[in-house]
Protein backbone atom coordinates (compact mmCIF):
# COMPACT_ATOMS: atom_id res chain seq x y z
CA UNK A 1 0.00 0.00 0.00
CA UNK A 2 1.55 3.31 -1.09
CA UNK A 3 1.43 6.59 0.79
CA UNK A 4 -1.65 7.88 -1.00
CA UNK A 5 -3.62 4.73 -0.18
CA UNK A 6 -2.53 4.90 3.48
CA UNK A 7 -3.74 8.47 3.74
CA UNK A 8 -7.00 7.56 2.03
CA UNK A 9 -7.59 4.64 4.40
CA UNK A 10 -6.86 6.83 7.40
CA UNK A 11 -9.30 9.51 6.20
CA UNK A 12 -12.02 6.87 5.75
CA UNK A 13 -11.30 5.28 9.15
CA UNK A 14 -11.43 8.71 10.80
CA UNK A 15 -14.83 9.34 9.15
CA UNK A 16 -13.61 12.50 7.44
CA UNK A 17 -16.41 15.06 7.02
CA UNK A 18 -16.22 18.50 5.48
CA UNK A 19 -18.27 21.66 5.85
CA UNK A 20 -19.35 23.41 2.63
CA UNK A 21 -18.82 26.86 4.11
CA UNK A 22 -15.40 25.96 5.50
CA UNK A 23 -14.25 24.45 2.20
CA UNK A 24 -15.30 27.47 0.12
CA UNK A 25 -13.73 29.83 2.68
CA UNK A 26 -10.42 27.97 2.47
CA UNK A 27 -10.68 28.05 -1.32
CA UNK A 28 -11.01 31.82 -1.25
CA UNK A 29 -8.02 32.08 1.11
CA UNK A 30 -5.91 30.18 -1.43
CA UNK A 31 -7.08 32.56 -4.13
CA UNK A 32 -6.76 35.80 -2.16
CA UNK A 33 -3.00 36.35 -2.15
CA UNK A 34 -2.58 35.32 -5.80
CA UNK A 35 -5.72 36.95 -7.12
CA UNK A 36 -4.27 38.17 -10.43
CA UNK A 37 -2.66 34.80 -11.15
CA UNK A 38 -6.06 33.11 -11.01
CA UNK A 39 -7.79 35.88 -12.94
CA UNK A 40 -5.23 35.63 -15.73
CA UNK A 41 -5.47 31.85 -15.82
CA UNK A 42 -9.28 31.91 -15.91
CA UNK A 43 -9.23 34.43 -18.75
CA UNK A 44 -6.80 32.18 -20.59
CA UNK A 45 -9.19 29.23 -20.15
CA UNK A 46 -12.03 31.34 -21.50
CA UNK A 47 -9.93 32.35 -24.50
CA UNK A 48 -9.04 28.70 -25.19
CA UNK A 49 -12.73 27.74 -25.14
CA UNK A 50 -13.53 30.60 -27.51
CA UNK A 51 -10.88 29.39 -29.93
CA UNK A 52 -12.29 25.87 -29.74
CA UNK A 53 -15.75 27.20 -30.57
CA UNK A 54 -14.31 28.91 -33.64
CA UNK A 55 -12.47 25.73 -34.64
CA UNK A 56 -15.69 23.75 -34.29
CA UNK A 57 -17.55 26.20 -36.51
CA UNK A 58 -14.81 26.24 -39.14
CA UNK A 59 -14.37 22.45 -39.22
CA UNK A 60 -16.99 20.22 -37.64
CA UNK A 61 -18.59 20.39 -34.20
CA UNK A 62 -17.43 16.97 -33.03
CA UNK A 63 -13.77 18.02 -33.33
CA UNK A 64 -14.45 21.08 -31.18
CA UNK A 65 -16.20 18.91 -28.56
CA UNK A 66 -13.30 16.44 -28.40
CA UNK A 67 -10.71 19.20 -28.06
CA UNK A 68 -12.90 20.89 -25.45
CA UNK A 69 -12.79 17.72 -23.33
CA UNK A 70 -8.98 17.79 -23.33
CA UNK A 71 -8.74 21.54 -22.73
CA UNK A 72 -11.20 21.48 -19.82
CA UNK A 73 -9.39 18.60 -18.12
CA UNK A 74 -6.05 20.37 -18.53
CA UNK A 75 -7.24 23.71 -17.17
CA UNK A 76 -9.22 22.27 -14.27
CA UNK A 77 -6.13 20.37 -13.11
CA UNK A 78 -4.19 23.62 -13.34
CA UNK A 79 -6.26 25.07 -10.49
CA UNK A 80 -5.36 22.03 -8.39
CA UNK A 81 -1.63 22.33 -9.05
CA UNK A 82 -1.54 26.02 -8.18
CA UNK A 83 -3.75 25.48 -5.14
CA UNK A 84 -1.44 22.70 -3.99
CA UNK A 85 1.59 24.99 -4.12
CA UNK A 86 -0.17 27.65 -2.05
CA UNK A 87 -1.69 25.11 0.35
CA UNK A 88 1.78 23.72 1.10
CA UNK A 89 3.03 27.30 1.67
CA UNK A 90 5.47 27.09 -1.23
CA UNK A 91 6.21 30.00 -3.54
CA UNK A 92 4.05 29.50 -6.65
CA UNK A 93 4.86 30.54 -10.18
CA UNK A 94 2.37 31.13 -12.96
CA UNK A 95 3.90 28.18 -14.80
CA UNK A 96 2.62 25.89 -12.01
CA UNK A 97 -0.79 26.09 -13.66
CA UNK A 98 0.54 24.13 -16.63
CA UNK A 99 1.78 20.87 -15.09
CA UNK A 100 -1.05 18.61 -16.21
CA UNK A 101 0.55 17.40 -19.45
CA UNK A 102 1.83 14.04 -18.15
CA UNK A 103 -1.54 13.26 -16.56
CA UNK A 104 -3.74 14.59 -19.38
CA UNK A 105 -4.96 11.26 -20.78
CA UNK A 106 -5.90 10.02 -17.31
CA UNK A 107 -7.66 13.30 -16.55
CA UNK A 108 -9.65 13.05 -19.77
CA UNK A 109 -10.48 9.42 -18.96
CA UNK A 110 -11.89 10.36 -15.55
CA UNK A 111 -13.88 13.25 -17.06
CA UNK A 112 -15.30 11.07 -19.80
CA UNK A 113 -16.26 8.15 -17.54
CA UNK A 114 -17.78 10.52 -14.96
CA UNK A 115 -19.96 12.00 -17.69
CA UNK A 116 -21.05 8.54 -18.83
CA UNK A 117 -21.91 7.47 -15.27
CA UNK A 118 -23.80 10.74 -14.78
CA UNK A 119 -25.97 10.08 -17.86
CA UNK A 120 -26.59 6.34 -17.37
CA UNK A 121 -29.44 6.73 -14.83
CA UNK A 122 -31.46 8.52 -17.52
CA UNK A 123 -31.29 5.47 -19.82
CA UNK A 124 -34.63 3.99 -18.59
CA UNK A 125 -36.32 7.33 -19.26
CA UNK A 126 -34.81 7.46 -22.75
CA UNK A 127 -36.08 3.95 -23.50
CA UNK A 128 -39.51 4.94 -22.19
CA UNK A 129 -39.55 7.97 -24.49
CA UNK A 130 -38.48 5.95 -27.53
CA UNK A 131 -41.22 3.36 -27.12
CA UNK A 132 -43.91 5.94 -26.46
CA UNK A 133 -45.18 7.25 -29.79
CA UNK A 134 -46.88 10.28 -28.28
CA UNK A 135 -43.71 11.40 -26.56
CA UNK A 136 -41.75 10.85 -29.76
CA UNK A 137 -44.16 13.16 -31.57
CA UNK A 138 -43.79 15.79 -28.86
CA UNK A 139 -40.01 15.54 -29.08
CA UNK A 140 -40.25 16.13 -32.83
CA UNK A 141 -42.33 19.23 -32.09
CA UNK A 142 -39.73 20.43 -29.62
CA UNK A 143 -36.91 19.94 -32.11
CA UNK A 144 -38.86 21.91 -34.70
CA UNK A 145 -39.25 24.78 -32.24
CA UNK A 146 -42.97 24.35 -31.53
CA UNK A 147 -44.22 24.73 -27.96
CA UNK A 148 -45.52 21.57 -26.34
CA UNK A 149 -46.52 20.37 -22.90
CA UNK A 150 -44.80 17.04 -22.14
CA UNK A 151 -47.09 14.18 -21.18
CA UNK A 152 -44.68 11.88 -19.39
CA UNK A 153 -47.41 10.56 -17.16
CA UNK A 154 -46.76 9.43 -13.60
CA UNK A 155 -44.37 6.64 -14.63
CA UNK A 156 -42.34 8.99 -16.81
CA UNK A 157 -41.98 11.58 -14.07
CA UNK A 158 -40.96 8.88 -11.60
CA UNK A 159 -38.23 7.77 -14.02
CA UNK A 160 -37.16 11.39 -14.46
CA UNK A 161 -36.99 11.99 -10.71
CA UNK A 162 -35.13 8.76 -9.96
CA UNK A 163 -32.75 9.35 -12.87
CA UNK A 164 -31.95 12.88 -11.71
CA UNK A 165 -31.41 11.73 -8.12
CA UNK A 166 -29.17 8.83 -9.17
CA UNK A 167 -27.20 11.11 -11.49
CA UNK A 168 -26.56 13.67 -8.75
CA UNK A 169 -25.52 10.97 -6.28
CA UNK A 170 -23.20 9.41 -8.87
CA UNK A 171 -21.63 12.75 -9.71
CA UNK A 172 -21.16 13.56 -6.02
CA UNK A 173 -19.50 10.20 -5.37
CA UNK A 174 -17.10 10.68 -8.31
CA UNK A 175 -16.48 14.40 -7.78
CA UNK A 176 -12.96 13.90 -6.38
CA UNK A 177 -11.84 11.76 -9.30
CA UNK A 178 -9.99 14.60 -11.04
CA UNK A 179 -8.02 15.89 -8.02
CA UNK A 180 -7.22 12.29 -7.00
CA UNK A 181 -5.84 11.41 -10.45
CA UNK A 182 -3.87 14.66 -10.36
CA UNK A 183 -2.06 13.89 -7.11
CA UNK A 184 -1.66 10.12 -7.21
CA UNK A 185 -0.34 7.37 -9.41
CA UNK A 186 -3.70 5.61 -9.52
CA UNK A 187 -5.32 4.65 -12.79
CA UNK A 188 -8.63 6.04 -14.02
CA UNK A 189 -10.79 3.35 -12.37
CA UNK A 190 -8.67 3.41 -9.21
CA UNK A 191 -9.13 7.17 -8.87
CA UNK A 192 -12.88 6.88 -9.31
CA UNK A 193 -13.07 4.10 -6.70
CA UNK A 194 -11.00 6.21 -4.30
CA UNK A 195 -13.39 9.12 -4.82
CA UNK A 196 -16.40 6.94 -4.00
CA UNK A 197 -14.64 5.63 -0.90
CA UNK A 198 -13.87 9.10 0.41
CA UNK A 199 -17.18 10.71 -0.55
CA UNK A 200 -19.63 8.04 0.55
CA UNK A 201 -19.96 9.65 3.97
CA UNK A 202 -20.03 13.18 2.59
CA UNK A 203 -22.83 13.07 0.04
CA UNK A 204 -25.14 15.36 2.02
CA UNK A 205 -22.27 17.79 2.65
CA UNK A 206 -21.49 17.73 -1.08
CA UNK A 207 -25.06 18.74 -1.92
CA UNK A 208 -24.73 21.76 0.38
CA UNK A 209 -21.41 22.60 -1.26
CA UNK A 210 -22.90 22.21 -4.76
CA UNK A 211 -25.90 24.38 -3.86
CA UNK A 212 -23.75 27.17 -2.44
CA UNK A 213 -21.40 26.92 -5.45
CA UNK A 214 -24.31 27.27 -7.87
CA UNK A 215 -25.58 30.30 -5.96
CA UNK A 216 -22.08 31.77 -6.04
CA UNK A 217 -21.80 31.25 -9.80
CA UNK A 218 -25.31 32.61 -10.34
CA UNK A 219 -24.67 35.86 -8.48
CA UNK A 220 -21.23 36.10 -10.10
CA UNK A 221 -22.93 35.92 -13.49
CA UNK A 222 -25.15 38.84 -12.50
CA UNK A 223 -22.06 41.03 -12.03
CA UNK A 224 -20.79 39.69 -15.36
CA UNK A 225 -17.17 38.90 -16.11
CA UNK A 226 -15.46 40.10 -12.93
CA UNK A 227 -17.69 38.03 -10.68
CA UNK A 228 -17.07 34.87 -12.68
CA UNK A 229 -13.32 35.48 -12.62
CA UNK A 230 -13.51 35.13 -8.83
CA UNK A 231 -16.26 32.51 -8.51
CA UNK A 232 -14.83 29.99 -11.00
CA UNK A 233 -11.41 29.67 -9.28
CA UNK A 234 -13.07 29.41 -5.85
CA UNK A 235 -15.33 26.56 -6.98
CA UNK A 236 -12.46 24.78 -8.77
CA UNK A 237 -10.14 25.12 -5.77
CA UNK A 238 -12.83 23.75 -3.45
CA UNK A 239 -12.47 20.29 -5.00
CA UNK A 240 -8.75 20.38 -4.25
CA UNK A 241 -9.31 21.63 -0.68
CA UNK A 242 -11.65 18.72 0.12
CA UNK A 243 -8.97 16.22 -0.92
CA UNK A 244 -6.11 18.15 0.68
CA UNK A 245 -7.91 18.40 4.02
CA UNK A 246 -8.96 14.77 3.99
CA UNK A 247 -5.49 13.43 3.15
CA UNK A 248 -3.61 16.07 5.17
CA UNK A 249 -1.42 17.30 2.34
CA UNK A 250 1.83 18.84 3.51
CA UNK A 251 1.77 17.13 6.93
CA UNK A 252 4.16 14.52 8.25
CA UNK A 253 4.04 12.33 11.34
CA UNK A 254 5.01 8.84 12.45
CA UNK A 255 2.00 7.29 10.76
CA UNK A 256 1.90 9.38 7.58
CA UNK A 257 5.17 9.72 5.77
CA UNK A 258 6.21 12.58 3.49
CA UNK A 259 3.97 13.25 0.52
CA UNK A 260 5.66 10.57 -1.60
CA UNK A 261 3.70 9.95 -4.77
CA UNK A 262 1.43 12.88 -3.89
CA UNK A 263 4.25 15.29 -4.66
CA UNK A 264 5.40 13.48 -7.75
CA UNK A 265 2.86 15.39 -9.82
CA UNK A 266 5.60 17.98 -10.28
CA UNK A 267 7.65 15.39 -12.17
CA UNK A 268 6.61 13.90 -15.50
CA UNK A 269 5.53 10.32 -14.98
From TrEMBL:
Coiled-coil ranges per UniProt: none
Protein name per Swiss-Prot or TrEMBL: Glycerophosphoryl diester phosphodiesterase membrane domain-containing protein
Keywords linked to the UniProt accession: Membrane, Transmembrane, Transmembrane helix
Bilayer-crossing regions: 34-60, 66-83, 104-131, 151-169, 176-194, 206-238
Organism of this sequence: Saprospira grandis (strain Lewin)
Domain of life the protein comes from: Bacteria
Amino acid sequence: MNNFERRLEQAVQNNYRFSAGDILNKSYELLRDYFFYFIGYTLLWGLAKLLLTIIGQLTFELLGDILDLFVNAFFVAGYYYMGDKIYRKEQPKFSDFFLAGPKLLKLVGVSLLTSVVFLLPFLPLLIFVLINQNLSTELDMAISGNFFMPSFGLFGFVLLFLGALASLLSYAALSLGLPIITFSNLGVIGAMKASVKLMKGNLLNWFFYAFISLLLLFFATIVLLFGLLVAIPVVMLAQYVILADALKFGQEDEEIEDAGDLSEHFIAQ
